[in-house]
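Can't attach files on this board, so I'm pasting raw text. These are the components:
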Amino acid sequence: MTAIRPLVAGNWKMNGLGASLAEIASLLDRLAQNGLPPTDIMVCPPATLLTKAKLMLEGGPVTLGAQDCHPLASGAHTGDLSAEMLADAGAKAIIVGHSERRTDHGETDAMVNAKTQAAHRAGLSAIICVGETEQERRNGATLEVVQGQLAGSVPRDARAANTVIAYEPVWAIGSGLTPTQDDVAEVHAVIRAELTRLIGEEGTGVRILYGGSVKPGNARELLQIANVNGALVGGASLKAEDFYTILCAY
Ligand code: PGA
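---
Top answer:
Structure tokens for the assembled complex are below.
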């Protein structure tokens, strides 16, 4: 099997006005001056900034992602955005099933599965987020929860080329807490095995990102763990300097 090329993606969440595009310009400057790390790089700003960010990123080393989509291509769904619209605005990937969406909007695995299929229908990759709550970890249910989320969220025709999994323990997001290296290795190994069970050989090539309080200070130790094929970075992706330092872990 050929080595999996890592992906480091920045999830800006509901942060960023026009002025924040200066961080993207600064990231591009740093990459131009210092050379490219051996990893794919993506930024996922809010949908309002996609078209402007697209103009800045076109032809460069950083790709553009979006943070959510509606399952349908168009229709009477006020306020929603379809995968086709996000593709039209310049996105190459869509984060689906982030724990904040599962919590804030009651998104179920079935909905995440439908959104993943929508991303694929529009020719985009889906970054499918899974992860246990603090209570579930305390109850010893982590592996079972993550396996269940994968079984429900990953369409059986998913391919390594259009699907990324992000393991994000809910309790690690935005908290400054991270699991031990052994815990990350254990969950990522189970995700790899479950992907292979669900989609066969393709599962061996799917990138499995770690997410949850990835910072310049801990990126190196997290990114070297077996079956960790990159990171989904929230808070630390908002500042070009921090995000660039995380990329330098490779
Ligand atoms: P964080 O967020 O890096 O701020 O913890 C990660 C995420 O939710 O994707």
